[in-house]
Structure prediction request, 482 residues.
Amino acid sequence: MSDLTIMQPTEDEQVELQEELVIDRENYDHFNEEKLTYKAEPGINEEIVRKISKDKNEPEWMLRKRLNGLKLFKEKSMPPWGPSIRDLDLDKIIYYMRPDAKRNATSWDDVPEDIKNTYERLGIPQAERSALGGVGAQYESEVVYHNLKKELEDQGVIFLDMDEAVQKYPEMVKKHFMTTCVPIHLHKFSALHAAVWSGGTYIYIPKNVKVDIPLQAYFRMNAKKGGQFEHTLIIVDEGAEIHYIEGCSAPQYTENSLHAGCVEVHVMKGARARYSSIENWSKNTYNLNTKRAMVHEDAIMEWVNGNMGSKVTMLYPCSVLVGKNAKTDYVGVAYAGEGQYQDTGCKVYHLAENTSSSIISKGISMYGGVSSYRGLIDIRKGAINSKSNVRCDGLMLDNKSKALTFPAMDVHENDVKVAHEAAVGKVEEDQLFYLMSRGLSEDEAIKLIVSGFIEPLIKALPMEYAVELNRLIELEIENSVC
Prediction:
């Protein structure tokens, strides 16, 4: 990864944090009784699309985008590649739900008690107090809490939910919303997103402003058969810097749920952005997310991606290097347990000279889970002196699981350097023997090996989130036997 500064605790603080942090799976699987002011009927149609737009008092141009998205969604077919999503019945998904809560509260005291308790369980208010510059919290289809530290606001930083941004900054949103970065017609689920998007995050960092403490949004689904379609739009102006952290979770039901959010990041000349995401959806959720960044001259885009939950994940953060000397880094870890298929990776388009990309992808699978890397490096004619390095590793913790790689490289320029390295295997018996001979149990030895395997991602996260991710993976592999 690059040298973007992250405020890390001292060694004593790290030990104290690791000793104090105990993650209970119930914190993620807990669900509240439904308290909604509106709940659409399952399925998607023009009436629901118009209802969403009317409720949000949107301008006519946004409604037209929604209706175009609905039209394209109906025309486009399901992805013909990757994991099967035939069990996802889109006619049973509920595409719009409004919780019985005040929108955009700036005090946790104004958030309904049951919703606030959910976020307390997840540690969001505490993280805001100790380590974050701003927090947004979305529950179902609405943002229920949003706040930004005054010192950042005084520097001109804008941190709003997307619904509010459409009202306050319509021209800026119109210019960037699903135009060049993630076009509506990109695929079936980008079109669906355009039709029913709700909530999300809007961030603008002014020229030369360096935000040295992260901003975070947390997206929570609670209801059965729910769909969540938040939209994130981040604009990092020339010479500016930002680190944005996204967390996601949902309780587990027997009915399927759908997450089809969209992230658009515009990194302008000389700017730097880091987008960290820990997605811990429940194992009945289909996570079909779209994330893309436009990276301009001398700019840097960094993706840090951890995928823990979901029944099926299809997620490939993409950087389009449109300016000279643009750079992107990606570090991703995916864990697939019983009944899970994690299909993740990264796409990079090199469109200008002297551009560079680095991709490190780690997949862990056990109990019959499937973890696969799917990525693309596309170097266009004229992108001379471009460099790309890809490494994808798969670790299987038993004899039933699968670790797969589907790399693709499309190179149209001779004067470039491209490297790809892949390794797939099981836990080495000699490693286990060595660690167990030093007094560790088999479970402890496996956890230690896995911790070393995912070290690149852990190094890229602030300590609080790194420890949380480690704990989540440990919960999944406890009592496992190779």
